[in-house]
Amino acid sequence: MSAQAIIINHDLWRKGAGGAPAGLSGMSDASAYAGLDLNLAQFMASTFTGSSFSATSFRQAGWTACHFSNCSFELCDLEGIAISGCTFTHCTFARSQFRGSRMSGTRFSQCTWSDLNFDSAQWSSVDVLDCNGTGIDATDLQGERVDFTGSNFNDMSLTNARIN
Q1: 17 versus 88: which is more confidently predicted?
Q2: Which of 34, 108, 123, 127 is the most exposed place for a label (fewest CB within 10 A)?
Q3: Any residues with CB less than 8 A from the CB of 5 and at least 6 apart, and which?
């Protein structure tokens, strides 16, 4: 079954219309998705190239050892997502929220962030390299071994944040 079919089946399952929970492992994808409920979906060792996600919910989802290249996430709800050992290269994140998310061993390289919220997020060994953006808000963000080398963010508000 293709990655797209597994993702669509998960959305159907979440909406009570059949389908099955997504356990995407070792797959690749280059599709466009809008308005999906991908809460609880688990992506492992999968590659996304040019995929786009718009108005999609990933609450309490888990991404492990995945690679995202030239992907876009707009108006996405990533509250409580766990991201571990993933890489994001040339990806765009816009008007999305990561409240209560957990990231570890994750790298963002040459990405664009705009209008994101990281309230109560936890980061460990997160690299944000050569990225840019605006409108980043985070209250109570906790991070250790975080590297922002070469990144430039305007209008960034970190309240009660503890990084490094």
Answers
A1: 88
A2: 34
A3: none
- Rounded mean pLDDT, 123-148: 98
Is residue 27 within 8 Å of residue 6, measured between CB atoms? yes
Decide: pTM greater than 0.70: yes
Asked if 24 contacts 6 with a C-beta cutoff of 8 angstroms, the reply is yes
Kindly give the pairing relationship between strand 23-25 and strand 62-64: unpaired
Q: Which two tokens stand for residue 104?
A: 């570890």
d(CA 148, CA 133): 12
Residue 21 DSSP symbol = -
Nearest to 138 by CA among 164, 162, 159: 159
Q: What angle do CA 67, 73, 79 make, to 5 degrees?
A: 90
pLDDT, mean of residues 59-74: 98
* pLDDT value, residue 23: 80
Q: Tell me the per-residue pLDDT of 32-66, one tens digit each, with 9 for 90 and over.
A: 999 999 999 999 999 999 999 999 999 999 999 99
Give yes or no for a contact between 132 and 149, defined as CB atoms under 8 angstroms apart.
Answer: no
Would you give the end-to-end CA distance of the chain in angstroms? Answer: 43
